[in-house]
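ok so dumb question maybe but i'm new to this and my supervisor (M.) told me to 'just get the structure for NADH-quinone oxidoreductase subunit M' and walked off. so i did the thing. is this what she meant?? sequence i used:
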Amino acid sequence: MDILSLFVLIPVLVIIALVFTKGLHQARLVAMAGSLVQLGMAINLLFAYIKESAVNENVFVFTRDIVWFEQLNIHYNIGVDGISVALILLTAIVVLAGVFISWKTYDLPKEFFISLLVLATGVYGFFISIDLFTMFLFYEVAVIPMYLLIGIWGSGPKEYSAMKLTLMLMGASALLMVGILGIYFNSNADGGALTFNILEISKVNIPVEAQKLFFPLTFIGFAVLGALFPFHTWSPDGHASAPTAVSMLHAGVLMKLGGYGVFRIAMFLLPEGAMEWSWFFISLSATGVIYGAFAAIRQTDLKYINAYSSVSHLGMVLFALLMLNKTAWNGAILQSLSHGFMTALFFALIGMIYSRTHTRDITKLGGLLKVIPFISVIYVIAGLASLGLPGFSGFVAEMNIFVGAFQHEAMFYRVATIISVSAIVVTAVYILRVVGIMLMGPVKNEEFLKLPQATWYETTGIMLLLIPMVGIGIAPYWLSEMILKSLQPFIQGLL
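this is what came out, is it supposed to look like this??
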């Protein structure tokens, strides 16, 4: 068994083991053990990749190719570069943290953890695939469990939120399928055979007119999952109704599939289409960056504040990808990782606060720093990372994005960059507003004086997310080097 296929096999084996568990205690132990194994595999993959890439000139390593359906040239074709390795490690950490944060899930715990791991299986499979059909298959496997996770274990208008999320993502998937088929049927433009292999298609000169037609379909198909304005509306409602661990995986991991798909498929395979349409989607992305930040200011529900913050931060990822240069792309990947850890940490903390106070309305909270100091201090740290304070991952990512974006001499790009940069100031406003209202001042409710402190499993989940967020901010160079090496073939495709 190759090192990458284990990322699909192990979660499936854990799911089978969960089927035979009885009760909450057994279910969470099996889920924890399985998630720990996956994290160990991700760390091992990271070191194996560093070792292999030092002696292997190929960008993708640990490749494996098995024919699935010969008539259509569909293969189980897998491999990883530095970008996918980093995102796999992000996924493993967030999944394990989500298991710890869900330690006290009492309603159908076995089914809950099974659904989480099905989602994780799809995400792992998506990140290791270098075949368009296989990638799309895993993409759907990752998205579908969200309906059940929100519709069954959610709160508030959960049926509406689950249905809205599912319909919008399925609509985006329909556009994406048309885009993928368009790429497939133009993959023999140089006289070869039709193929779904991303690396083979990248060497084909797809007609410019076909690129102009299929790039927007492919871009929107993926970018809807990345909260592209104005198709972002499913995200805040979905976050607000989802249980804590689902919000963590939804924002921390699942939404990264959108940016990764845009980068790996739309940008890489349709570069002429990307250059033709970049101005239009830059306008939408920059609008999303500033709109998400201003929308967050107006919210009083903690989950909605973080959800709109995610719209802003992920809009920055799409904005950076559309700048079509190495520095901005490096920032986009770092921003995806930073946002994954940061927003998962935010949702974990929000879940802890809600489970104690039974409200997410910041106007009903106050003085929590005196009552639950550890949770409150971590919330402040996550907020500082969100607004891009030096020493945290957000600063490293945003600096790369804005420096790369400002390298364009055209006035349009620089104006769009200035608009996006201004979102940092707005982010500081809503972060400091929440901290001031919720954590500072007198305790508004006497019942809050008896709130329990963070438990061992909550503290473990917090530290799993906090350590890499700070680590990337302090020592980002090894990660940037790994990413920059993987960017080389993409840059060459644009020259």
